[in-house]
From TrEMBL:
InterPro entries: D12N6_MeTrfase_N, DNA_Adenine_Mtase, DNA_methylase_A-5, DNA_methylase_N6_adenine_CS, SAM-dependent_MTases_sf, T1MK-like_N_sf. Coiled coil: none annotated. Gene3D superfamilies: 1.20.1260.30, Vaccinia Virus protein VP39. The lineage of its organism: Archaea, Methanobacteriati, Methanobacteriota, Thermococci, Thermococcales. The keyword Transferase applies. It comes from the Archaea. Residues 162-479 form the DNA methylase adenine-specific domain. PANTHER family: SLR6095 PROTEIN, TYPE I RESTRICTION ENZYME MJAVIII METHYLASE SUBUNIT. Its EC number is 2.1.1.72. The keyword S-adenosyl-L-methionine applies. GO terms for molecular function: DNA binding; endonuclease activity; N-methyltransferase activity; site-specific DNA-methyltransferase (adenine-specific) activity. Residues 20-153 form the N6 adenine-specific DNA methyltransferase N-terminal domain. This is site-specific DNA-methyltransferase (adenine-specific). One of its GO terms (biological process) is methylation.
Length: 513
């Protein structure tokens, strides 16, 4: 649905993106660094579930009353019929009722609500019950913050809020706290970078999309949005999403993020992808149409000794083991192995993976020789919250079109950025930059100082170095010179110098020189 139309509909329902973001900004200011920002996400999630269940309950009761039942009987039936709701919510913990209970006991009550919610919904086990609001009671000031937070969210009516608006709100929180969490080692992929990668891979209805380094779910959610905008909402339901995340808390956030965006059937798992891929098919690991990820860059601890213990090691790491201090080429190999015979793979990677030597070079050369690599994109610097390094995108295609075989497209997008509107030290990709890069990829553009098609033979001559600047460097724009204006300016300077000389000579004569 068009964003302007969505905003209009939500404004009619009493909620706009701007109003929701204002509340979230106040919530963010309240907690600062005293408690984890994840509790804002959790409160938004709970409030939505409570309001949604209450709306469905009222609609069910009215339906029964139209059939001739009195309200009390209709309510009893509606409460007992658990299967008629989008999600089973413990009605004794409805948000409106919690406001009337002892405020001092709210953290404990909400923690109980999370446990009950997980009991009623198997898909939420290990998700909502992973959190405990009792953390707010560790300090007296935190307890006061929690009361204010609860009241802040109590003022929101989320019954009719669209998943688009709620999803944007969820993403706003993740983005707002990304600079702070980057210092603690958390990785947040800018949504503009994700959009670029999704536009290039172009997932379509009926396909299966897999992110082996899931994070908070941005790659899969953007893939869903891409299909919805391109083919319609009903077709987006035919895009099948899979993801695995090693961090249990981050996995929980991803599950909630999916639900907030209205994506109910994504298959997500928690666990170490490189050692134990979660999705199986028969006696081996599952393969997908599109594999997309921004895995941790230069991840330690996945050298040969560790990967010897990995499931399906021979099939997933057939090109060799990476060095122990960087798992970049372990991730690339796993993603290639996880793609179907005609599958497409896109990865955001550290720029150093393109040209480092040793074990990485040996793996890289084998993959290049097999003609799996389709495109390498050098990104601008300062796009990411946790590093100023530029980063790169690598696109692999197991079914390259005939005209692209034996060739690799290099795109130097290092100058394609605008200043970040909110964070002074950061850059970001603008819409026009994304369009320019995608167009160059789709057209396989060659030789304009922005992109260049290079043969595998030439890459071989360069010792399998994939550093983009080795093949394409941005052409500096030649400045147009107005010769007449320049000459007049120069003549004026010369006349001024002659005048100065004459004055100095006069002073010297007066002094007797």
């Amino acid at each position: 649905m068009d964003r302007k139309l969505t905003d209009y509909i939500n404004a009619k329902n009493g909620l706009t993106r701007e109003e929701l973001e204002r509340v979230l900004k106040k919530a963010a200011d309240l907690i600062r660094t005293r408690v984890d920002y994840k509790y804002i996400l959790l409160l938004l999630f709970l409030k939505r579930l409570s309001d949604e269940w209450e709306k469905e309950f009222e609609e069910y009761v009215k339906k029964l009353m139209k059939e001739g039942l009195d309200r009390k009987t209709a309510e009893q039936i509606a409460l007992q019929d658990k299967k008629s709701y989008t999600i089973s919510y413990p009605h004794e913990y409805l948000w409106r009722d919690l406001r009337e209970k002892d405020v001092e006991k709210l953290p404990q009550t909400l923690s109980e609500a999370l446990k009950k919610l997980a009991e009623l919904n198997p898909n939420l086990r290990g998700v909502v019950d992973r959190f405990d609001f009792m953390e707010f009671m560790l300090h007296k000031d935190n307890a006061e913050i929690f009361k204010q937070l609860f009241e802040l969210f109590s003022g929101l009516d989320l019954k009719n809020a669209s998943p688009d608006v709620l999803g944007d709100a969820y993403e706003w929180i993740l983005r707002y706290f990304a600079p702070q969490k980057a210092k603690e080692g958390e990785v947040y992929t800018p949504r503009e970078v994700i959009k670029l990668l999704v536009e290039i891979l172009d997932p379509r209805p009926g396909e299966e999309v897999y992110d082996p380094a899931l994070g908070s779910g941005g790659m899969l959610i953007t893939s869903h949005i891409h299909v919805k905008e391109k083919f319609g909402e009903s077709e987006a339901k035919r895009l099948f999403l899979y993801g695995q995340e090693v961090n249990p808390t981050t996995y929980a956030l991803a599950e909630m993020n999916m639900m907030i965006h209205g994506i109910k059937d994504a298959k997500l798992a928690v666990g170490d992808t490189l050692l134990r891929p979660a999705f199986k098919e028969g006696n081996t690991f599952k393969r997908f149409d599109v594999v997309i990820a921004n895995p941790p860059w230069n991840q330690d601890g996945y050298g040969e000794e560790t990967l010897k213990k990995a499931e399906f090691r021979e099939k997933r790491f057939e090109y060799g083991s990476p060095p122990n201090n960087s798992a970049d080429w372990a991730w690339i190999q796993h993603m290639l192995a996880s793609a179907k015979d005609e599958g497409r793979v896109g990865i955001v990677i550290d720029n150093g993976a393109l040209f480092r030597g040793g074990a990485e070079k040996r793996i890289r050369s084998k993959i290049v020789k097999e003609d799996l690599l389709e495109c390498v994109i050098l990104l601008p610097e300062k796009l990411f919250y946790n590093t100023g390094a530029p980063g790169a995108i690598m696109v692999f295609n197991k079914a390259k079109p005939k005209e692209r075989k034996g060739k690799v497209l290099f795109i130097n997008a290092s100058l394609e950025y605008e200043k970040h509107p909110e964070i002074r030290k950061l850059n970001r990709l603008g819409e026009e930059h994304i369009e320019k890069i995608v167009e160059a990829y789709n057209e396989f553009k060659d030789g304009d100082g922005f992109s260049k098609v290079v043969s595998i033979d030439e890459i071989k001559e360069n010792d399998y170095n994939l550093n983009v600047t080795l093949y394409v460097f941005p052409m500096e724009k030649e400045e147009e010179i107005d010769v007449k204006a320049e000459w007049e300016e120069l003549r004026g300077i010369n006349e001024e110098l002659r005048s100065v000389d004459e004055r100095i000579e006069g002073y010297l004569r007066e002094l007797g020189y």
